[in-house]
């Protein structure tokens, strides 16, 4: 299930963040900087997906402004963060996506 690189569509599916929002966040947050392949398509790594999940939590769930989220990222995260690591959350979201696609085929 693990891959070296993910497309913007795959990241959007995994994180449940629209592709246009991902492209916007790239312009605002230095921490989110996916590389581009020879065709010009964005290629996201595991670390990029973890950053997207952190941003989603801060902006969409905890209602931080983009400036506030930037400050939290610069500090290294929230002090009262949940005990579940972001990488585990990402893995669980990938598993859910896989199972949903499998369910559709049945």
UniProtKB/TrEMBL annotation:
PROSITE patterns: HTH_MERR_2. GO terms for molecular function: DNA binding; DNA-binding transcription factor activity. It holds the Pfam family MerR_1. InterPro entries: DNA-bd_dom_put_sf, MerR-type_HTH_dom, MerR_fam. Keywords: DNA-binding. Residues 5-60 form the HTH merR-type domain. PANTHER family: BLL5018 PROTEIN, REDOX-CYCLING DRUG-SENSING TRANSCRIPTIONAL ACTIVATOR SOXR. This is MerR family transcriptional regulator. It comes from Fodinibius halophilus. The lineage of its organism: Bacteria, Pseudomonadati, Balneolota, Balneolia, Balneolales.
């Amino acid at each position: 299930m693990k891959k070296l690189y993910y497309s913007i569509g795959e990241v959007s599916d995994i994180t449940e963040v629209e592709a246009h929002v991902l492209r916007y966040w790239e312009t605002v947050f230095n921490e989110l900087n996916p590389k581009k392949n020879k065709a010009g398509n964005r290629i996201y790594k595991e670390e990029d997906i973890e950053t997207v999940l952190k941003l989603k939590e801060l902006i969409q769930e905890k209602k931080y402004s983009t400036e506030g989220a930037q400050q939290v990222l610069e500090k290294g995260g929230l002090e009262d963060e949940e005990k579940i690591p972001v990488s585990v959350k990402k893995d669980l979201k990938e598993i859910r996506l896989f199972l949903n696609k499998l369910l559709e085929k049945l």
